[in-house]
């Protein structure tokens, strides 16, 4: 296909994807919000967003490929190397700028804002203008800024803010030693958690989880960040995209406080939920459920079990074993142990659901069965930048854990070694859910 033909095809994909996205907003009963809006749209807080996410994935991939095709290479490369989003976002998070502007819906002059946060007005205006040019904040008049849809994501009450804070803090520190970590001993060939770039940068002798445990003041931020990640990734799409008929018992492994289990228990009171995690998270889970959903405890529909999925499981013969965003935190050897422990606990009727990000292939193999969505040409088969979050997560895992996101084949191979057989894949755009049974 010629470059001109590719451009025409990309334009058609962009047009179709944009109209698909508009249709999703219309289905929600409210038109597409303007960028300067501060009112949440129903889709902003909806759990069932697979349709919108599919449209945006296609739209982002096609728009980026169109721009890269038409722009001179020097333009694209220098634009990427001059990215200053992260220091500016970090500055407004630390200064709580969105919180202050929330009290000034008409906007606040940078001179007044600078007095409230004790930052030079000239420097502050440049940071805010940089972000406003990217539609985060609105400059309503010269040097007068207000919140908008994007900046409100950085308000201290929003878990997306905590997610951004955690990721920026960790990745910035780890990135400063990445090259050294890749090329010097003892790190270069190591896949141990304690040899991750972040641990090297922090000079901490342990894993990321041990580092978090050593700093109790950071735990609430980390927990809220995980809530934010679930929102961004559309983790709750699983409640609507998976068929829960016939499920009476479920074990949520590495459950934390129950970000998955609590909404599931509300939607499906017929399912008995066993949450399994380390003692610390389980203590927090008991307190949270006692406050927010005591009925489930009173009716004995939820059980809190202290355990470690790296050891044999005490919860046997559940209809479903659910593993959310856990395997990517572990090396192949450790992930295999986790899967083997689950397999040994499963009955013949049991199913394992692995809910995680998948690295999609960048090449097309004629005749090969494809179990997850593949982008139409001339897009890259993985949707290009439309699947950027999985690659961002992959590098984040490298930086913080010395691990990786996996391809579908890599996960299937691990499961096969553990005695499991894949039954199917549910592609939910940001994440996938793989269903396994015990091999005959």
Key phrases:
seven-stranded mixed sheet, 4 domains, Arc Repressor Mutant, subunit A, 19 helices, 440 residues, 12 strands, globular, alpha/beta
Structure, briefly:
The protein has 440 residues and is of the alpha/beta class.
Overall number of structural domains: 4
**CATH fourth-tier homologous superfamily of the largest domain:** Vaccinia Virus protein VP39
Which percent band covers the strand fraction?
A: 5-15%
Low-confidence stretches: none
What is the C-alpha radius of gyration, as a whole number of Å? 23 Å
CATH architecture of the largest domain: 3-Layer(aba) Sandwich
Straight-line N-to-C gap: 47 Å
Please characterize this protein's 3D structure:
The protein is α/β, with parallel strands linked by helices. The chain folds into 4 domains: 3-81; 97-154, Winged helix-like DNA-binding domain superfamily/Winged helix DNA-binding domain (Arc Repressor Mutant, subunit A, Orthogonal Bundle), CATH 1.10.10; 159-225, no CATH class; 234-385 and 400-438, Vaccinia Virus protein VP39 (Rossmann fold). Helices cover 48% and strands 13% of the residues. It is built from 19 helices and 12 strands. It has a 7-stranded mixed β-sheet. It has a 3-stranded antiparallel β-sheet with strand order 1-3-2. It has a two-stranded parallel sheet with strand order 9-10. Helix 4 packs across helix 7 and helix 6 crosses helix 7. It is globular.
């Amino acid at each position: 296909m010629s470059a001109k033909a590719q451009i025409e095809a990309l334009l058609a994909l962009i047009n179709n994807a944009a109209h698909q996205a508009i249709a999703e907003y219309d289905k929600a009963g409210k038109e597409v919000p303007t960028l300067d809006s501060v009112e949440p749209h129903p889709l902003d807080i909806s759990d069932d967003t697979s349709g919108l996410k599919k449209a945006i994935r296609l739209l982002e991939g096609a728009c980026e490929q169109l721009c890269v095709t038409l722009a001179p290479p020097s333009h694209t490369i220098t634009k990427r190397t001059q990215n200053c989003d992260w220091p500016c976002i970090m500055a407004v998070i630390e200064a709580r700028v969105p919180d202050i502007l929330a009290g000034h819906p008409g906007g606040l002059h940078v001179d007044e804002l600078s007095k409230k946060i004790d930052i030079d007005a000239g420097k502050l205006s440049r940071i805010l203008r940089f972000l406003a040019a990217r539609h985060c904040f609105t400059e309503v008049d010269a040097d007068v800024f207000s919140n908008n849809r994007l900046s409100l994501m950085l308000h201290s009450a929003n878990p997306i803010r905590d997610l951004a804070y955690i990721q920026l803090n960790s990745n910035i520190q780890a990135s400063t030693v990445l090259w050294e970590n890749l090329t010097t001993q003892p790190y270069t060939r190591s896949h141990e958690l304690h040899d991750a770039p972040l641990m090297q940068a922090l000079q901490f002798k342990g894993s990321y989880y041990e580092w978090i445990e050593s700093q109790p003041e950071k735990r609430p931020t980390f927990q809220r960040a995980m809530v934010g990640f679930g929102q961004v990734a559309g983790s709750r799409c699983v409640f609507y995209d998976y068929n829960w008929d016939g499920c009476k018992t479920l074990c949520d492994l590495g459950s934390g406080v129950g970000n998955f289990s609590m909404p599931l228990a509300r939607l499906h009171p017929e399912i008995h939920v066993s949450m399994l995690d380390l003692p610390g998270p389980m203590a927090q889970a008991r307190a949270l459920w006692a406050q927010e959903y005591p009925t489930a405890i009173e009716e004995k529909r939820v059980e809190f079990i202290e355990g470690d999925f790296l050891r044999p499981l005490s919860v046997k013969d559940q209809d479903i074993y659910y593993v959310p965003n856990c395997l990517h935190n572990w090396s192949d050897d450790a992930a295999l142990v986790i899967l083997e422990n689950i397999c040994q606990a499963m009955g013949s009727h049991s199913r394992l659901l692995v809910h995680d990000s998948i690295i999609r292939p960048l090449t097309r193999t004629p005749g090969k069965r494809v179990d997850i969505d593949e982008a139409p040409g001339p897009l890259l088969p993985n949707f290009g930048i439309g699947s950027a979050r999985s690659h961002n997560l992959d590098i984040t895992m490298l930086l913080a854990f010395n691990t990786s996101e996996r391809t579908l084949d890599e996960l299937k191979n691990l499961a096969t070694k553990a005695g499991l057989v894949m039954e199917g894949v549910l592609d939910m755009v940001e994440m996938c859910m793989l269903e396994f049974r015990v091999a005959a």
